[in-house]
């Protein structure tokens, strides 16, 4: 996907799923070939974060925690990412984002309370296209098990397009096929 800074700044002005102050730092490194931990951490910086669809924008914050500039300082596109709680962090209420295509960088976030972090983690986990695709597949599987067919809404919401699930099974990626077969087997066992 291509976009420029102006388009990104314009998109960041829309209504947010969640927004607020968080402390952020980037941790780089990983594990060496000998298995030695080589993570290096920067210092935490307070920033204003705003989640819109699958894009997490961040803005410079003033001393009072307000947004310094209406234009975002940067953004994370939350695809191919793992969002998880950080239990072994030096701060009590924290979570991290690790991107599959850049496993040597981990982004650590800290908030004011456990509730605050729970909200962020829940919204961030639901922000990706991957999450909604897996939800769709799960619901389609349930429909298939109940009816033998999978329904899709077409362009016109009054017209439902059905096909035989097993005919389309050939086009599903292998890991999803395996997951579907396991689910179908578990359901059939009762």
Description:
With 190 residues, the chain is an alpha+beta fold. 31% of the residues lie in helices and 32% in strands. It folds into two domains: 5-127, Pleckstrin-homology domain (PH domain)/Phosphotyrosine-binding domain (PTB) (PH-domain like, Roll); 130-189, no CATH class. It is built from five helices and ten strands; from the N terminus they run αββββββββααββαα. The strands form two sheets. Strands 1, 2, 3, 4, 5, 6, 7 and 8 form an eight-stranded antiparallel beta sheet that branches. A two-stranded antiparallel sheet has the order 9-10. Strand 9 and strand 10 (160-164) form a beta hairpin.
Q: What class would the helix/strand composition place it in?
A: alpha+beta
Reading off the top of the CATH hierarchy, the class of the largest domain is best stated as: Mainly Beta
Name the average pLDDT.
79
Major β-sheet profile: 8 strands, antiparallel
Count of alpha and pi helical runs? 5
CATH topology label of the largest domain: PH-domain like
What percentage of residues falls in helices of 4 or more residues? 25-40%
CATH architecture designation of the largest domain:
Roll
Spell out the helices and strands N to C.
HEEEEEEEEHHEEHH
| Uncertain regions spanning at least 5 consecutive residues | 153-161
Extended strand count = 10
Principal-axes geometry comes out as elongated
At the fourth CATH level, what is the homologous superfamily of the largest domain?
Answer: Pleckstrin-homology domain (PH domain)/Phosphotyrosine-binding domain (PTB)
Q: Specify Rg, calculated over alpha carbons.
A: 21 Å
């Amino acid at each position: 996907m291509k976009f420029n800074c102006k388009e990104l700044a314009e998109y960041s002005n829309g209504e947010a799923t969640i927004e607020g102050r968080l402390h952020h730092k980037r941790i780089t490194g990983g594990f060496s070939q000998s298995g030695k931990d080589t993570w290096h951490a920067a210092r935490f910086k307070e920033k204003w974060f705003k989640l819109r669809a699958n894009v997490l924008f961040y803005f410079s914050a003033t001393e009072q925690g307000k947004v310094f500039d209406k234009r975002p300082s940067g953004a994370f596109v939350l695809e191919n990412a793992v969002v998880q709680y950080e239990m072994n962090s030096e701060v009590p209420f924290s979570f991290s984002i690790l991107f599959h295509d850049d496993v040597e960088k981990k982004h650590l976030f800290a908030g004011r309370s456990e509730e605050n972090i729970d909200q962020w983690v829940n919204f961030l986990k639901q922000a990706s296209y991957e999450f909604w695709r897996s939800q769709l597949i799960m619901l389609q599987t349930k429909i298939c098990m109940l009816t033998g067919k999978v329904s899709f809404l077409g362009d016109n919401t009054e017209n439902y397009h059905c096909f035989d699930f097993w005919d389309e099974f050939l086009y599903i990626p292998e890991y999803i096929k395996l997951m579907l077969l396991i689910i179908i087997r578990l359901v059939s066992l009762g």
